[in-house]
Amino acid sequence: MSGVLAMDQASGLTQMLSAMTRRPAAEAPPAHHQASSLLAAAPAARRHCRTIAVAGGKGGVGKSTVAVNLGMALSVAGRDVVLLDADMGLANVDVMLGLAPSRHIGHLLDGECTLDELMLSAPRGLRVVPAGSGARRLAQLSSGEHAAIIRAFDELAQPPEYLLVDTAAGLSDNVTMFAAAAAEVIVVVCDEPASLTDAYGLTKVLSRDFGVRRIRMVANMVRNEGDARALHQKLARVSDRFLDVVIEFGGWVPHDERLRQAIRRQCAVVDLWPSSHAALAFKQLAGAADKWVEPERAGLDRIAFFAGRTTPVGGVPR
Ligand SMILES: Nc1ncnc2c1ncn2[C@@H]1O[C@H](COP(=O)(O)OP(=O)(O)OP(=O)(O)O)[C@@H](O)[C@H]1O
């Protein structure tokens, strides 16, 4: 890639991502403006979209389970939620929800459909952008293709209130690109040494190479809150010592056989068994997430840093 092209992409990315995450300038007009604005029929302010990436490093820790059920719990609570399956090439959100996509993100990239046409309706008003399965090309998207996906969200006439992004396992660009672009990052951890070390590895890359300064850890498949907080202590202790990032306790989800049964039935447990332990935990997580205070300049600082990192000046990021 030429340096100029890389620079263009980087600055384009900065604009696209900042447009996607910034708050509308006139969210709360002064009281004396409100009456006149009723008469003036000013154009509606663009809705602020809260972006949350669900990551974890290790496979099988429950990233998709958390993304699907958090999305469903927010939808049940009346929020307008879009869930992007960013596990490109190995999609599973559509399978988990019993959806039958006829198109995937590759069609969007090829200009064969719009984002609106790609979105599938899941129960409870949740909308899903499917990733596509078995396509190697999708697993190796270029930075320009990542930017095109993000731009498609930016161009939605009415952005959702929440954009949740279910990321893949590992540390590929597909993971770091979307996690770094989101205002909030959830790292899902379960009580296994490899889950903790992979979560630490992901945290290290996101903080060191992409300027992510806060991550929220969600403990999954644990017995109780005490075990969840013990896991958080382990991860926070080591990252406090070696990394410039705060790992906050985001919540916990118990191991619940109902969850596996719901997945076998291709339903979200929050929808199928709303009173199960797991469903109640996801509703609690959604309630907490709804109150999370975003950084004052959500996304902006991080995006500038992030865009810089996509420009391979002086070599690839460490
Ligand atoms: N809280 C839970 N209780 C019981 N089973 C769970 C729980 N969370 C996840 N599981 C089960 O763990 C398995 C892996 O979950 P999931 O597919 O969400 O993980 P993942 O991290 O997205 O995996 P991958 O990285 O491979 O996409 C699934 O079979 C799911 O049913």
Automatic annotation (TrEMBL):
InterPro entries on file: CobQ/CobB/MinD/ParA_Nub-bd_dom (IPR002586), MinD_FleN (IPR025501), P-loop_NTPase (IPR027417), ParA/MinD_ATPase (IPR050625)
Chain ranges of the CobQ/CobB/MinD/ParA nucleotide binding domain: 52-247
Gene3D superfamilies linked: P-loop containing nucleotide triphosphate hydrolases
Residues the record lists as binding ATP: 58-65
SUPFAM superfamilies: P-loop containing nucleoside triphosphate hydrolases
Organism superkingdom: Bacteria
Membrane-spanning ranges: none
Keywords: ATP-binding, Nucleotide-binding
GO cellular component: cytoplasmic side of plasma membrane; cytosol
GO biological process: negative regulation of cell division
GO molecular function per UniProt: ATP binding; ATP hydrolysis activity
Protein name as annotated: ATPase involved in chromosome partitioning
Species whose genome carries this gene: Rhodanobacter denitrificans
Native organism taxonomy: Bacteria, Pseudomonadati, Pseudomonadota, Gammaproteobacteria, Lysobacterales
